[in-house]
Input
Amino acid sequence: MGQRGELRRAPAYDGELGAAVARAQEGDEAAFAVAYRIVQPGLLGYLRGLVGDDAEDVASDAWLEIARDLGRFRGDGAGFRGWTATIARHRALDHLRRQRVRPRGSALERDLLDLPGPHSTHDQALESLSTEAALTLIRALPRDQAEAVLLRVVVGLDGPAAARVLGKRPGAVRTAAYRGLKKLARQLRADGVTDEPPRTLGEST
Amino acid sequence: MTGAGNRPAGGPERERTEAADMAGRHGGRGPADRVPLESLLATALRADAAGREDRALAAFRDARDSGTHQAARTRRRDDWRPRRPARRITLSVLAAGLALGGVAYAAIDAGRPAPGDTDRHRDRPPAATTPPPPARPTPEAPAPTSADPTRTSAPADPDRPAPAPDPEADCRAYERLPDPARNATAWRRLVAAAGGEDEVAAYCARRLTTPPTARPAPPDRPADPGRPTRTHPGNGSAQSANKGGSKGGKQ
Output
């Protein structure tokens, strides 16, 4: 299992997370809180990439399901990341479907309107990316690439786990992550974030 | 956290290759994985994430106190235990077992009265006073039937066909594996043998503590064609049978 090393935080916390989940499954509420605090940042980051401003709501709903179904889960800390990401993703897709039924100016459209200027993004990229700028970059990717990058980098899943969350073959997810990161790197090194016109989330290359 | 090498000034070329490198191999742990781009993204998107912890904790308490956690059954999508290697091994074992153990198994089956077979798996009474199950017909019969016992036994022992209809093996698998196994064939077999889901634990406790003389033990299993002496089936054969049984139960 040498596959959990891509993100510094993930392996560092996976042991603690696995222990917390096990205790939570025995009824320990404090342990569940520990698991929540370890998982929530990555989960929320992933959901931000999927549903934008509604991420908090969707994450909250996902946690209701996670809390309810905790007894069903089997696995270690890394597995718990994958399991929770799968639940969050289903909630997000439900959310997006509902939005499609009654459109109200999707989060994506609002984000695109708020696109930071190329230079501001570039300046920030010198030392750090703001959340908004990172989201803008990610959401300009085709959705399969955006999700692959988010799951790998933000949630901290390894390749096979990300593939399981997405219901795809590991090879396909690896390719998508590769392309996504390559494109992001290209955009960051260019004279601004809009090296090429941003695409709509979900559009395929 | 994001390290000193984040500056795009460090070289666009470097950034690109590192990103490519990272994405290309997921198994790596080296420093090259900690590319600036990833760190930037992770730091930016993971920040600021308090959320509604209180709501999640309330839901947790509700589920716990109402017994939802205990009653929950693990579905396939809830099982994230790393087990891919095990599955691969099981498949190869299964295939090899079918190929190599098939002959021995068929030979054994031929020498076995049909009624005994069904009796053995389905009609075992759950009562503690289980009489020694119908003795497997003539332990000597199977082994000699294969012309060369040593040849079949070596591969057949670990490679026995997986779905072992063997109570001991099923019971050991049941004890070792948590819920997921309970959807499996082995679990259904146990329930049938025990006379109900609630009886399985007691049934298995009996099965696994019954002295060797009282149980049919798996000498008749194809696992044993290389073990000509059936007088002492004891632990060795039970364990080898268990090996295959637990694997079968996992699937």
Notes: The domain at 115-205 of chain A is CATH 1.10.10.10 (Arc Repressor Mutant, subunit A). The longest helix of chain A spans residues 77-101.
